[in-house]
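This protein record is not my work; I was only asked to verify it. Would you go through it and say whether the fold makes sense for this chain? Here is the record exactly as it was handed to me.
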Amino acid sequence: MDRSLLAALNAERAARRAAVVVTDFASGRQRLVREAEVGADPLAAEVEKAIRSGKSGIAATSEGEVFLNAHLPPARIVSIGAVHISQALAPMAKIAGFDFEIIDPRTAFASEERFPGAILHAEWPETVLTARPFDPYTAVCVITHDPKIDDFPLISALKTGCFYVGALGSRKTHAKRVERLQEAGIPQSSIDRIEAPIGADIGAATPGEIAVAILASVIAAFRKRKMFADRRGETEPS
């Protein structure tokens, strides 16, 4: 790989954007396809499949075979709330291959004792997201039931185009949440992306069952997610 292509690839990786390196077997020539450029590429279908699955592989073209080397940012789940559901979700997310983080300013909840080995931010979301902003490879699960903690990251997730946004609460709770988001200027099309009640409809009742339901929804959303080019126009500027 030549230096300029490597530098371009590293720039995409540093920005947590997906890209595919296409290598022609016959000539050895290589080129970089960024996720935002997939739709215009002659191998659009094959490159999109590689990005969606995260798997590298061989593709046939009219000029011979090429190798598609997929580079995806590690998908992550961010739980807003260090609650019992998060305690159950943390090990499940790791097993499923997701990075997992917890944000909760309540130090009595966000403690190493309750979440051993987890990436834990015992700070307000406004502070954490300044240094570690959301991106399209992030799933956000809002589960504190406290608007003072939940609303800022929820708005940020919708503006950023996170691949999954879910919020815990009853229909009545969500209706009040929708009113607050509308007052904050969030368009209804973005609000409609929120899965509320959070998680797949499996009749979950216990924290462990709700964690399973959340993980099921996150996996489905990640595997069926829209590509970057298809998401343009859906998000609002930060």
Confidence is low (pLDDT under 50) at residues 232-238. The CA atoms of residues 151 and 180 lie 8 Å apart.
